[in-house]
Amino acid sequence: MSKQDTSVLTPVLRIDFPRAERLGRGKIMLLEHIRETGSISAAGRAMDMSYRRAWLLVSALNSMFKEEAVSSQRGGKQGGGAVVTPFGEELIRRFRAMEEKAETAFSEELAWLESNRNPDAAPAGGSLTDPAPRS
Prior knowledge:
Elements lengths: L13 E3 L5 E3 H13 L2 H7 L4 H14 L5 E4 L7 E4 L1 H20 L1 H10 L19
Antiparallel strand pairs: 1-2, 3-4
Helix pairs in contact: 1-2, 1-4, 2-3
């Protein structure tokens, strides 16, 4: 479920914490990019977001748990950097495992939805509050 194919119905996992904190695929993807690049700014760029936005998401992640998911070092002679901590690695692993379990658990219902969906339907974007189309 981690690599989303837009032609297939896919459940999206989001965990809502008290105090309006959330854990979802965006923060997990950011952790994965930090792991790959060793940099919060490079990870943000890979996701087409500003360094500030990426830093705020990392800060939110680190404050959600007893242990930090990302450890960062300010620039200097060696330059700055960031590393996903062992806790962050476990967080990624467990979140991805939950996604796989959700996909497996919903597979029968997703197959039913897929067999009954209109392949010619307009792309998503409308809402229940949109006015009905005029004829």
